[in-house]
Design brief:
The chain has helices spanning about 5, 15, 30-35, 40-50, 55-65, 70-80. The chain has six helices and no strands. Helix 5 crosses helix 6. The longest helix is centred in the middle third of the chain and has 15 residues, at about 40-50. The protein has one domain (about 5-80). It starts with a helix and ends in a 6-residue tail after the last helix.
Amino acid sequence: MTILESTAAPGSLLAALFSNDVFHPAEPDSIGDTGLPSSLVEALICKYVLIVGSASGRQIAEHICLPFRALEDVYRSLRQRQILVH
């Protein structure tokens, strides 16, 4: 038995990593579903807007890799505090 045969044995971690099965996690519906603190998400949004100057909500969501619908409450909060504007 070679090293490759022993590491690629069925049920091994390496076999699982190189299998054709693909894991697709469900998109979060809210920031709470992500497990991230809202302060972290707000900071990412503010840093991105500071760098690019102006961006739509969907562009921001795409850049920070979170669905737009999960960020709607964060956008609303940032607008109410006058950190973001339309």
